[in-house]
Amino acid sequence: MKLKYVLSAMAVLVFMMLAGCQGEAEKSSGTKSKEEGTATIQFWHSLGGKNGEFMDQLIQRFNDSQDEVKVVGTFQGTYDETSTKLQQSISAKTGPDVTMLERAYVQQFAESEVLEDMTPYLKESGLKKGDFTKGLMGHSTFNDKLVSLPLNRSTPILHVNKTMLDEKGLKVPTTWDELNEVANALVVKEGDKVTRYGLTMPYDTWYPIAMISQSKGTYFNKDKTSVGFAKNDVGVKVFQYLKDMQKTGALYYPPAQDSGNIVNQMFAAGKVGLMFQSTGTIGDISQNTDFEYVTAFLPKNKIHATPTGGGNVAMLAGSENKEAAWKFIDFMMEDPKGLQQFIVETGYLPFTEKMVDSKEIQDLWTKEPNKKTAYDQLKYAVDNNKSVAWPETMHEFFSAIEAIMYDDEEIEPTLDQFKGEVERILSES
Amino acid sequence: MKKHNVWLSVDFLLKAAILFAFIFPFLWMISTSLQTFQETLSVPPTLIPSSPQWINFVEAMTSGPFATYAKNSIIITLSIIIIQFLVMIPAAYAFAKYEFFGKNVLFALVLIAFMMPGQVTFIPIYLMMADWGLIKTLIPQILPFMSNAFGIFLLRQYFMQIPEEIIEAARLDNASEFKIMWKIMTPMAKPALATIALFSFVSHWNDYFWPLVMTDSNEVRPLTLGIAMLKQSEGISNWHIIMAGNVVLVIPILIVYLLCSKQIVKAFVYSGIK
């Protein structure tokens, strides 16, 4: 008999819990509608850690600055996870009003026509496309529609342990040949074991694409029917260059998992002298190194070139509060307390003339010239992996990089096979 | 006698080595959670922090609405376990001891559910939950786990081993089926129940994928997502803070494990059969 009571008590408890959840639902389901004339805007982003805290502060500054619009910012996982969540929530009509989108995913969403054209809003606020840094607007327009604006943008850059180079009397490399020499000269071995490497870079498609562009190749060809680095063996030469350096210990290619953190920590600990890595890490590195730390343009091969990265901001076509959503975006773009302050705090790139000319950014650059290098490099920015099919081919490119860098597969057949996959994917899309 | 001693020490060393291999990551996690940021970056790695930084725990727990996350984690995990037990015990009892039409087909369906990963079903379930307006509640994280196919399977095997005579004897004493199930079968299956409870607790407490895809707002998120948010999106991660968060996440698992392991041993020793 006693058991029966216990059981019914348990059942009651469960129902109470479920009812409790239901109660919370009612409380929070009001957020989308207007409450006392205040519109609530849902904003999704992928910023964790300190950058996430700076983003929360930006949202707080906006909410404090006026009382018509209230923004609720929510972290939705990594860039990839955010994009997956957007896909499912847009079809379920539970999507946000404003979202951060990794720039390479913009095309995919724009093609499905779920991103609002912001041209009229831009005009309304007295802004024009020309106000934005050209190198960072590569992913902003799709079929003449303005579907996204820059948010937290970065580029890869060369990070240099100047103290280590000076000890050997070496100069900061500006070309591939110099890079090869310097990286090899920095190697320290104990017996057969390398204890100090010359160059490193995270496991990512970004760096091979940068090097392909520097060799006058492109990721996709002009017609978007195949890869653009098969001609003159550009791709083979890029990977041969990396493989040759890897063999002598001049290049440390990190394990795939958490590679960004691994290379940052090796660089900060003086285990490697040169690093290709995002501009987004400059702040952290300069705070945690006791050697002379400088940044420089990525070395050129035939030409200088750099891809861009990071996130853009987009307004969703399904939003019911577009005017309010734009108000928030406009604040981020134009108010000195918007993204300008966020950029000073985090080290991402400024992207409007107004930001660049502002006292805050100019002061920052005088104090930390390393951050100016990244902005100056933008004149060489080029993105040649823009396509709806990019995310799909990216996975194939990762497989090719793994095969070559980790498994010592022959470069040419691996890239040929990759080319075949890209052509198949492009013909299907 | 001497030979015996040699084997004993080899045995001891092997066990110690295996124990160390399992425990070391935990010790490292605890050590990192008490280090300063500089210590987490040092090469060779710091093993014992120079002065324990308890402040890391404060920093981890104040970086977001951790009280809400913890409350959600507890409600979700406990609700799942309670509901699972209410569904699982009668189902397993019926599959083990009753003959009815379509029994084998139904049991095959249970096994198929057992083999279906969440990655296959999450989009339809999300759309369904959104349609019902439940995305801002905890229900999408509880309802899909109401029944536990692995649990039904394990418990059915366990019930099948219990001799029919015990049930017959109870029926002769005029015990209702309900009473037989809860007062005779269930206590005898304690080891299986403790095992299932432990597995269920660990998998739902630690789950990252399902809450990530089922929730859009912080009010309904569990601890795992809060801790993922501690990780720096670009730059050098604050491992000391992340590990402090992980220590907090792991402690309840250790407690439940200690409770269950005792229960399993006890049940094996005292249960009437085998």
UniProtKB/TrEMBL annotation, chain A:
Keywords: Signal, Transport. Residues 1-21 form the signal peptide. The keyword rRNA-binding does not apply. It holds the Pfam family SBP_bac_8. It is found in: Cell envelope. Transmembrane segments: none annotated. It comes from the Bacteria. The keyword DNA-binding does not apply. Belongs to the bacterial solute-binding protein 1 family. This is ABC transporter substrate-binding protein. The lineage of its organism: Bacteria, Bacillati, Bacillota, Bacilli, Bacillales.
TrEMBL record, chain B:
It is a multi-pass membrane protein. InterPro entries: MetI-like, MetI-like_sf. It comes from the Bacteria. Its main location: membrane. Residues 70-260 form the ABC transmembrane type-1 domain. The chain crosses the membrane at residues 12-31, 74-93, 105-126, 138-159, 180-202, 239-260. Keywords: Cell membrane, Membrane, Transmembrane, Transmembrane helix, Transport. It is found in: Cell membrane. Belongs to the binding-protein-dependent transport system permease family. This is Carbohydrate ABC transporter permease. It comes from Fictibacillus norfolkensis.
